[in-house]
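If your schedule permits, I should be very grateful for your opinion on a structural question. Please examine both parts with care and let me know of anything in them that strikes you as inconsistent. The record follows directly beneath this note:
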Amino acid sequence: MRIIALANEKGGSGKTTTAVNLSACLAEKGKRTLLIDLDPQSASSRWLRKEDEAGQLLDAFTGGVKLADLVQNVGPNLDMIPSSRRLGTADGVFPFDTNPKTIMARAFKELPKKWDYVLCDCPPNLGVLTLGALSAVQEVLITCEAHYLAMQGLVDITDTIDKVTGSSNPALKIAGIVVCRADYRTNHTKEIIEQLRGAFGKQVLKSVIRENIRLAECPAYGFHILDYHQYCNGAEDYRSLAKEIIKQTKRSK
């Protein structure tokens, strides 16, 4: 079971879009997949029309309930643990002088190994939830918008990952950097991708998520991209990303 956090300190990087649609594409490939929404804004949860009405996800990290008790089915091979605004009080519940790994790793460790992939959609900031997730998971998948200003956010998150590996989670690995919202009609996008590959090498995955209106539309209807428009560029790109992630798993065995 691979447990992967999707993270970026900058909003608009395609993180939640990737979390939802990559989960759906892994499930389509027959991989049992669990999506955990760790963002108090609950974007993934609202997208898929799932709610944590009682705010119990926070209780799972404080020992009140188990994560497995909060699982809701989304479709074939795809489950979800939704979020709620109550999770936004985590900074007060989990003080910064407490090692977040001891708080969140326990909850993740209790998850039954019935899933092939567990994807965690982290908040777009470096609060205790993101730091706790990075301290508890095995890998991190970084999303990066194909824009010059997004590159600074990428540097910031990689610096944070280095700090986490140097302290609370030395086993943490970067599963890859996914370029999102790429508009190949512009030279700017091509230049950014070239710069990213030059700076980060093979950490930048081959799959690139193109700018696609269908990806922007599908949350409004409560569908992931495969249910909304399975033959569009967005669906094709996320299927490609799922294949790349699965190949990583096979190579590591």
